[in-house]
Amino acid sequence: MKKALLSTAMLAFIFTGCNDNKKAENAIDHSSHQEVEAASHDDHNDDHHLSDDGLGNNWSSEMETNNGAKWEANPETNEGVKKMQNLLKTQPTKTLEDYYKLAEQLNNDKNYVVKNCTMKGPSHDNLHVWLLPLMAKIEALSKTQSLEEASKLKHSIEENVNLYSDYFK
Known about the structure:
Elements: H1 2-16, H2 22-40, H3 75-90, H4 96-116, H5 121-141, H6 147-167
Helix pairs in contact: 1-2, 1-5, 2-5, 3-4, 3-6, 4-5, 5-6
């Protein structure tokens, strides 16, 4: 069930195109949020499950390479990812409010990537394998109720964002 929901989200995201208007961007955020919530109620045996605690980076096993090379990403996507990396290094995270601010800023940077993406084909498809779990984690960070959970989510987001350079140039 969860795999079908995430696949549907991915297809919807792919068919609407990354650089469509703000309305499409919001629809993507909304559909991904619904699917993440639905998936959290399913069992934990699905390939798309982030991990038992929801923080893993299992998605990396689904990534493909460009015949052993990294995928070419458009400059704006690379810029958005660099913004996220910098934010994760510089944003203080001592309180839940700090984590909520981080989640808001990460969401803005993610939206920049979505809005400005011009990638097509397999590179675009693989970007979505990387992006969908990141979106779920940012959403979870914006709603976390404990510093311990927020810290774990931030660490998982950092891993997710930093793994980008393993697959894209």
